[in-house]
Amino acid sequence: MKQAEKKPDLPLAEGKKGIRILLVIGLYIFVGVLVVASVIFIRTLFLLDATPLAPEDPPSYPEDAPPEPWAPEQGDPFVSQEPAAGESIRSDAEPMNLEASGPPVEHPPKPRYKGTLVFVIDDAGNNLEELEPFLRFSGPLTIAVLPGLPYSGETARRIQAAGKELFLHQPMEALGGQYPGPGAIYSGMSTETIRAVVEGNLAEIGPVAGMNNHQGSKITMDPEAMETILTLCRERGIYFLDSRTIADTTAPDVAKRMGIPIGERDVFIDNIQEKTAMIQSVEEGLHKAEQKGAAVLIGHTWSPELAATLEELYPTLVERGYSLATMSRLMQEHAR
Fold first, then answer.
1. Interacting residues of 335 by C-beta distance below 8 A, sequence separation 6+
2. How many CB atoms lie within 10 A of CB 157?
3. Residue 61 has what DSSP assignment?
4. Domain contains 204
5. Could you list the residue range(s) of the whole structural domain that residue 256 is in?
6. Exposure pattern of 240-272 as b/e (b: 16+ CB <10 Å)?
7. Angle CA(177)–CA(226)–CA(143) in degrees, nearest 5?
8. Total structural domains in the chain?
9. Looking at residue 333, what is its pLDDT?
10. pLDDT tens-digit series, residues 63-117
């Protein structure tokens, strides 16, 4: 008879297997608790390090002395720093202009003021074409118009429209007997006649800032005639410029006696109507302006190269420290 086959004890085996599972689960729970505890411990350490220290006690001040005003420390990035004297403010938010970066541009120093120049252009009224280049001149000009000519009135209107200063170029008798032109003053004229002639010329040319003599060597030597002329100028509120066609002119002495300021010509620009010679005459005027503070230079509309020469010289004159003015402006400055 065969022996019966032995069967395993199933409840006992299953019990051992369950114990092993519980041990493993317990191990995992232990490791997890350990990890959580470690994390909490480490985080606590970091929080302790980051805790700010207690602030120091504020400084004490005497009861009668207020605390010093607060001032930002140099370089504080959270405080708007005021620029030092001469510094410019640039926002870091603005893009830098790389094309403009580089060494600072050095501007040439402003030239020292050397004197004032007045350019007076005589004999206008004969020709409108000769007048035009002077009307286009970039700087101030005083233009003197002869009376009684075909274009005298139109010339005066164009001068005023161009913003240039208008003078009456009053004809006067010369020692050499040359014909001075219509509307002239002659020796032997009475005071009333001289006044009537000049007032008629002023009415034709229009409101003017002043007058100067055309020719007139004989009349400017006559103190009585000059007193009549200067009295009329004072009454009309206009200036007189002595063209100094003769060295023995009495105009400065009569004006001084009457207490009237007048202007005097320093240089004739175009006695020689060639560009090089005219430039040399202007240089003579510059020298006198530097010596006296101002110089009056007279030219004429009929000089073919004068307007272009003055236009060419104008920027250079300013760069060298000279200023240009009208005759009346110069007289006003001297009267102060």
1. 261
2. 13
3. -
4. yes
5. 115-335
6. bbbbbbbeebbbeebbeeeebebbbbbbbbbee
7. 75
8. 1
9. 87
10. 444 444 444 444 443 333 444 444 443 444 444 454 445 566 666 677 899 999 9
Cβ proximity of 130 and 273 under 8 Å: no
In a domain, 260, yes or no: yes
DSSP-assigned states of every residue in 235-271: HHT-EEEE--SSTT--HHHHHHHHT---EE--EES-S
| β-strand partners of 239 | 210
Question: Residue 174 corresponds to which tokens in the numbers above?
Answer: 């010369």
- Asked if residue 207 is part of any domain, the answer here is yes
- In a domain, residue 282? The reply is yes
At a CB cut-off of 8 Å and minimum separation 6, what does 267 contact?
A: 281, 282, 284, 285, 288, 295, 296, 297, 298
Cα 211 to Cα 217: distance, rounded to the nearest angstrom: 15
Predicted TM-score (pTM) of the model is: 0.69
Q: From CA 292, how far away is CA 286, in angstroms rounded?
A: 10
Cα-based angle 98, 102, 106 (whole degrees, multiple of 5): 135
- Are the C-beta atoms of 239 and 212 separated by less than 8 Å? no
CATH of the domain at 241: 3.20.20.370
**Amino acid present at 181:** G
Q: Which two tokens stand for residue 272?
A: 């020689």
**DSSP letter (8 states) at residue 107:** P
